[in-house]
Amino acid sequence: MEEQIAALAAELAALKETTAGMNKTTAETFYWLTIPLMVLIHAGFLSYEMGASRAKNALASGIKNILAFAFIIPTFYYAGWFIYWAFPTGFSMAPGPIGTSGLEYALAAASPVGTAMGPNVADSATGVFFGAFAMFAATTASIMSGALIERVQIVGFTILAIVLGSFVWILGAAWGWHADGWLVTALGYHDFGASGVVHAIAGFFTLGVLINLGARVGKFNADGTANAIAGHSMPAALVGLMLIIAGFWGFLMGCVIFPGEAWSWGSGIFHNIYGTPVTLSAMTFNILMGFAGGAIAAWVMTHDPFWMMSGALGGIISVAGGLDLYWPPMAFVIGAIGGVIMPLVAARVEKLKIDDAVGAVALHGVVGVWGVVAVGIFAAGYPALPAEGAPTITLYGQVLGALVMAVLGFVPGYVTSLVLKKLNLLRVPKEAEVIGLDKVKVPIEAYPEFFGGGLATKTPAE
Amino acid sequence: MLVGTNITDWAAVDGAYYAGAGTEAIWLFLSMILCVAALVLGARHEKGAYKRVK
Question: In principle, which of A45, A145, A211, A364 could form an S-S bond with A203, CB 3.0–4.6 Å?
Answer without folding.
Answer: A364
